[in-house]
Amino acid sequence: MILGSINPAVLLAALMVAATPILLAAIGELVVEKSGVLNLGVEGMMIMGACVGFIIAVNSGSPLLGFIGAALGGMALSLLFALLTQALMTNQVASGLALTLFGLGLSALLGQKYVGITPPRTPKLDLGVLSDIPFLGRAVFSHDIVVYLTIALVAAVWWFLKYSRAGMILRAVGENHDAAHGLGYHVKRVRVLAIMFGGACAGLGGAYLSLIRVPQWTEGMTVGAGWIALALVVFASWRPWRAMAGAYLFGGVVVLQLNLQAAGVRIPVEYLSMSPYLITIFVLVLISSGKARGSLNAPGSLNRPFHASS
Q1: Which residues touch 165 (CB under 8 Å, ≥6 apart)?
Q2: 134 close to 230: Cβ distance less than 8 angstroms
């Protein structure tokens, strides 16, 4: 066992990369749930984004087009969810689960010919002298642009929900859709737009996996990242900055267990691999019990169907 071989700067840099796809999916789902809709199809939208983004990037030679295609792919799948739950009034939980299974199956079919292919490389951002700062340069200022745009997105969502008029309307719809409807706000339109935003973010998270973090396409490559993103929204009490902290916590656990394996820690690899998911379950149980339960900030109309006549 050689724990001294673990470089803290490299560990922190890997943590930020591991957290980015989860954070993208979680911040999108946070906005969806703030509007009062529970979409359990995040895993399906992520894997579709990973597949569509990979295919477009390989065929066009452009990672940028791949990310755009991934966002559109995730958004297209989310529109199916919006059609089912907002127009046909089907059960949100059942529709979300079906969306995940559909996404996993469709992506496996579409990606059959792309296994083993290397996508075009996404360059790292050149931050000049910042990249030469000891420790911080390697840990914080040596990433691709998506890592920094994701952090900017968290700040933008926080500002949108807290200070913008549109964000306040979205929160009002999520807290009490009947009252929001009575005030003249179009509840279903707000929710469909939120669902589309969540789908685009999940698609981008999936593309980050297949184009940057891995980078390759393999069937089922999201391996539960969408479910972790869903858990992070609850962990964060529907607050953007807490979602970011949770994503980095989970990313840190993932990276640490990989480094412990590489360092030869004498713990069966199966236990190390399941550790991030065990910690996620532990955190969810902890914050959902006792006094911590009262601090949860769940939207009042979450997972409640809306009928305009009610």
Answers
A1: none
A2: no
Which pLDDT does position 256 carry in this prediction?
Answer: 75
Rounded CA gap, 205 and 272, in Å?
24
**Is 55 a residue whose pLDDT tops 90?**
yes
The answer to whether residue 292 scores a pLDDT higher than 60 is: no
The tokens describing 290, both together, are 């006792």
Q: Residue 251 is encoded by which pair of tokens?
A: 């990313």
Residue showing tokens 């199956």: 105
Cα 144 to chain center, whole Å? 17
Please tell me whether the overall predicted TM-score, pTM, comes out greater than 0.85 for this model. yes
Give CA–CA dist 205/229, Å, rounded.
Answer: 10
DSSP 174: H
Tell me which residue has tokens 């933008």. 156
What 8-state DSSP symbol labels residue 289? S
Cβ proximity of 202 and 45 under 8 Å: yes
CA distances from 57 to 52, 63, 119, 213 (A): 8, 5, 6, 15
d(C-alpha 191, C-alpha 229), whole Å: 19
Q: Are 256 and 11 in contact (CB under 8 A)?
A: yes
Partnered with residue 250 across adjacent β-strands are none
DSSP state, residue 119:
P
d(CA 148, CA 135): 18
Alpha helices in 209-294 (DSSP H): 225-235, 240-262, 269-287, 291-294
Q: Quick one: tokens of 9?
A: 């700067």
Q: What does residue 36 show for φ and ψ, rounded to 5 degrees? A: 95, 10
Q: 64 has which bridge partners?
A: none
Enter the DSSP assignment of 133: S
Q: What is the mean pLDDT of the chain?
A: 88
Q: Give Cβ neighbours of residue 157 (< 8 Å, ≥ 6 apart).
A: 27, 30, 31, 240
| Contacts (Cβ under 8 Å, ≥6 apart) of 180 | 169, 172, 173, 187, 190
